[in-house]
Every structure is written in structure tokens, then in C-alpha cells.
Design brief:
By secondary structure, the protein is an alpha/beta fold. It folds into two domains: 253 residues, TIM Barrel (Alpha-Beta Barrel); 54 residues, OB fold (Dihydrolipoamide Acetyltransferase, E2P) (Beta Barrel), CATH 2.40.50. 25% of the residues lie in helices and 24% in strands. It has a seven-stranded mixed β-sheet, covered by helices on one side. The longest helix is centred in the first third of the chain and has 15 residues. It is globular.
Length: 326
């Protein structure tokens, strides 16, 4: 049984440093907002092995007021007038019961130009879609991998997945005035033949289509398929573009993504650090410690909450810190 951890302001747990919850700044005008982890689906290609059958140990959730407060601090620091707040996570962000309140809170920040959200759509009911649009959500990136019912169920890893309801959800998103980006993952041997139908569906709705290349990830599901190289993948998209007359080779400029002032990296690779355990980690023999107002994931540790841990930093990219226990 997985344990769920709720992170409040009074817990004095920073929200920067880990990828499983909180806030991520990758040196662009996009700030990733991760309010919750967990997912109702068991997608066969899931890069983080989320869902009811996940082997991960814990899930996490952040208090909404705390999350908005810390988000605003990053916006102020970045001194950028066209911030995009992208609500995503390790799983499905709509599991977050305060999702509408989160969007409303972010919308109040005058430095935010766009609010977008990732979703698989299964929890997006009509009233929630209307509420999100009213709250100020600009775009939903909706994961639809096939319009074929059997292929869609197989890829979702869930017999109850209903592609007809998801199609209705897509129509409701467009009808609400929000922008829709349909975002399938092209998995060789599963849904290559589904791309044309998805393109036709996107054109009918006036939606964008952002086809993603399947990639294996260390902590993702172990899917026995051959990973397509970028050359073959891009050639496939070029062929589909020519056939359907819809741009599929999208770049950062299509979404107004550009470099922006980045939060400072507070540790150096190889640096020795010492901090207290504030949470158990996402994986076995892993803990999360707090040091210098940052979180650090420490490997090879069976320590408990409040224990002191000494570790050596092994990764610092994007203020996501990994360390080995010494």
C-alpha cells in the first residue's frame, strides 16, 4: 500500500529540488507546477511507472496556498513578463482537489501570461472544464493515443478507459474557449496507424497536435518495443504533414518558450552536504533531505524522518538535486 504525504507551509519543507512535487525552473519562461503525484491509469509507456499498479512507494501533495506563494516568489525572481505556468506532475494533476483554486491563484500574478495543464482527460468532467476555463486556464495538453477503442484501452492499461468519453472531453475543452493540444505518444507496434485519425480529429476541432516520441526511462515501465531514433521520427512527421496539411514538427517558438533568468544552483557536483530527512523518497532506499532551502534526493539511505544524513551531490541540473549517502 502506497503512503500519501501532504506538504504544508508549517512543515518547513522547500518546494524546489525534487521532480515528484513542487516547482521546477529549467531556465526558461516556463515554471512547472506539480501539486500532486499519482494517476488513475496504468499507461503501458508511462515514463514514471505511475498508476494503480505502480511499484513506486509514495505519493505527494502540496497545500495550495503554500504552492501559490512559492510560485509567486519564483516569478518575482525571474523578472520575466511572459511566464507560462505549466501544471503537470508525476501522473495526473486533476487528481488535485484544489486544481481550480490553484489556477485562480496563479492567474492573479500579473507576470503570468499563460497557464497550461497536462491531463489524460479521464477526470475532466464538463463542470470542471467550465470551472477551469473561468478560473483562467488557457490550454490543456490532452493525452490521446488512439481513437481506436481497443488500442486506446491497451495503451491506457485500463479496461474501463472510454475513448468516446475522451473525445467528448476534447470537444468540451474547445467549446469552453480554452486552447486544446492533443498530445499522443507514438509507440512503435502500438499506435503508428492511429496518427492519421488523430490528425483529422484535431483539424476538425481546430486543435493543435503535438506527437511525442516514445522514449525509455530508467524508472518508467519496461515496454518491449524498439525506440525510434529522431531521424526516423521526424521523417514520419514530415510525411504526415505533407499528407494532411497540418504542422506537426513543432518547436519552442510555437509555444513562446525562451530562455529566462534561472534560479541559482546552490550546490556543486561532488559537494558534501548534511541535512535532515523531511520525507521518505519515491523509490526504495531513498530519502528526501532539506538543505539551504532546497530538497535533495539521497540514494542508498534507509534513514527516517528527522534523521540527519550526510551525502555527496551527484546531480544539480535545473535545481533538481540527487546525492549519494556517505
Amino acid at each position: 500500500m502506497r503512503k500519501h504525504y501532504f506538504i504544508r507551509k508549517e512543515d518547513n519543507i522547500p518546494l524546489i529540488g525534487v521532480h515528484v512535487f513542487g516547482l521546477i525552473d529549467r531556465g526558461t519562461n516556463i515554471i512547472q507546477v506539480r501539486p500532486i503525484s499519482g494517476c488513475p491509469l496504468n499507461c503501458v509507456y508511462c515514463s514514471v511507472d505511475e498508476g494503480p499498479d505502480s511499484k513506486k512507494l509514495n505519493t505527494y501533495e502540496v497545500e495550495v496556498k503554500f504552492l501559490i506563494e512559492e510560485f509567486n516568489k519564483i516569478v518575482d525572481y525571474k523578472e520575466c513578463a511572459d511566464i507560462e505556468a505549466h501544471i503537470d506532475g508525476i501522473g495526473e494533476p486533476v487528481l488535485y482537489s484544489k486544481i481550480v483554486e490553484l489556477v485562480k491563484g496563479i492567474r492573479k500574478n500579473t507576470g503570468v501570461k499563460t497557464i497550461s495543464m497536462q491531463s489524460n482527460g479521464v477526470l475532466l468532467k464538463p463542470e470542471l472544464i467550465k470551472s477551469l476555463a473561468k478560473a483562467g486556464l488557457d490550454r490543456i495538453n490532452l493525452s490521446i493515443n488512439s481513437l481506436n477503442a481497443e488500442i486506446a484501452k491497451r495503451m491506457a492499461g485500463s479496461d474501463w478507459y472510454d475513448i468516446n468519453k475522451i473525445k467528448e472531453t476534447a470537444e468540451q475543452i474547445v467549446g469552453s474557449g480554452m486552447e486544446l493540444l492533443i498530445a499522443p505518444v507514438l509507440v512503435p507496434g502500438y499506435n503508428e496507424e492511429s496518427m492519421s485519425d488523430l490528425i483529422i480529429f484535431a483539424k476538425k476541432l481546430g486543435a493543435k497536435l503535438g506527437i511525442q516520441r516514445f522514449e525509455r526511462h530508467k524508472h518508467g515501465r519496461k515496454l518491449n518495443v524498439k525506440e525510434q531514433n529522431w531521424y526516423s521520427f521526424n521523417n514520419l512527421l514530415k510525411g504526415l504533414e505533407k499528407k494532411h496539411g497540418l504542422r506537426l514538427l513543432l518547436s519552442k517558438t510555437d509555444f513562446n518558450i525562451h530562455k529566462a533568468k534561472s534560479l541559482p544552483i546552490v550546490f556543486k557536483k561532488g559537494e558534501k552536504i548534511k541535512g535532515r530527512v523531511v520525507l521518505p523518497g519515491w523509490l526504495k532506499n531513498e530519502v528526501i533531505i532539506s538543505v539551504k532551502n532546497r530538497l535533495v534526493t539521497v540514494f542508498n539511505s534507509k534513514n527516517k524522518i528527522k534523521d540527519s544524513v550526510t551525502a555527496k551531490i551527484i546531480k544539480t541540473k535545473h535545481n533538481l538535486y540527487l546525492a549519494e549517502k556517505i
